[in-house]
Design goal:
11 helices; mainly alpha; two-stranded parallel sheet
Length: 221
């Protein structure tokens, strides 16, 4: 009980220091939450309201969380969880075109660290190539083609949609494994991107993705 009160006090201090009387809570991997976890969130929300703090909760998770929402709705004892924490559903879409990839890839060319320096993420890995004009944003067609090839090889007939997780992992692999080849005339080849996609484990996830996308199509029919 003492730990719980310390948590309440800490949350109140954070809310007052940041915004005054509001608290925003993000719960990742929410599809793994059990009933007791939602009851705990409910208790925290009730206590915050008693202290005059409005608590907003965002659940982020895999599509399986929708099954949990359905089961909660079927019982009077748990339907309040839906009304508190599962009112609105927002689907996060993956990359559906090469143009989508171009925007994200370009952020590696533009984002700098440390702030105020000339070191973008792309330049950190490929300084000579970057200074000579190489940009990841210009690689969007090659990256899309690499994923498209895997999609075709898997013989799936649904529209390809690439989760951000696998795009980020693919880019990381391509950067790390090729940085030793940096040169003024360096460019990431289609073979390099194909290898990075393969090592990202995207192929192993295709079957799970197929189940999700087919369910989405069926639900919208």
């Amino acid at each position: 009980m003492q730990r719980r009160f310390r948590l309440y006090n800490r949350l109140e201090e954070m809310a007052e220091r940041a915004s005054g009387r509001s608290l925003i809570v993000f719960v990742d991997e929410a599809q793994r939450l059990e009933l007791e976890h939602y009851e705990w969130l409910r208790d925290v929300q009730d206590e915050m309201e008693r202290r005059g703090i409005r608590m907003y909760t965002f659940l982020v998770g895999q599509p399986g969380i929708l099954n949990r929402k359905t089961s909660f709705r079927q019982s009077i004892d748990t339907s309040q969880i839906v009304s508190r924490f599962m009112i609105e559903e927002i689907r996060f879409e993956g990359f559906r075109s090469a143009a989508d990839l171009e925007m994200s890839l370009s952020t590696y060319d533009e984002s700098v660290f440390p702030e105020g320096s000339d070191w973008t993420f792309t330049r950190f890995f490929f300084q000579r190539a970057y200074d000579a004009g190489f940009r990841l944003g210009q690689q969007h067609e090659r990256v899309w083609d690499a994923f498209s090839q895997v999609h075709r090889q898997a013989r799936f007939d649904f529209t390809m949609e690439i989760p951000m997780e696998y795009v980020a992992r693919t880019i990381e692999i391509a950067l790390v494994e090729n940085m030793s080849h940096d040169a003024s005339d360096f460019a990431l080849s289609p073979a390099s991107w194909a290898q990075a996609v393969d090592e990202s484990n995207y192929v192993a996830a295709l079957e799970d993705l197929r189940i999700i996308f087919v369910d989405d199509v069926a639900a919208g029919a």
